[in-house]
Amino acid sequence: MDLDNPVLRLCQDGMRAEAQGRRSDALALYEQAWTASVDDYDACVAAHYLARQQDDPREILRWNTEALDRADRVGDERVAAFYPSLYVSVGLAREQLGEPEPARRAFEQAREHVGALPEDGYGEMLRTAIDDGLRRLVGRDER
Asked: Which end of the chain is more exposed for a tag (fewer CB within 10 A), N or C?
């Protein structure tokens, strides 16, 4: 993480606040990161972290959709590994909203990007989330 970037530094501070159970502080730091964003990369990161602090699945969806839009605008390797997480988050939000078909499509899009994930615990967690989401949603209309 480039800690010379103030937006990324704020997000790292927000993650630390999350880990310490200081959710309102984390939200405030992510909001500051969003306000401080100077380009689409910054906005992508800040929006994704803002989504994590939302309780309403509509807001989770809104912020992750914003992050996806910004990632598409960046369009380079800096955001490649973000896509699986963003699409999983969109899929989960759509599933919570009772939208199984868009949720399934989001999990399928996440699966299309798994090659960008690291071969570590984080990557495995996302791969499992994708598989679990697809298992829940594929064939749902046939029941």
From this structure: C
Tokens of 107: 């999990």
Q: What's the CA angle centered on 15, arms 14 and 16, to 5 degrees? A: 90
Query: Structural domain boundaries of the chain?
Result: 80-143
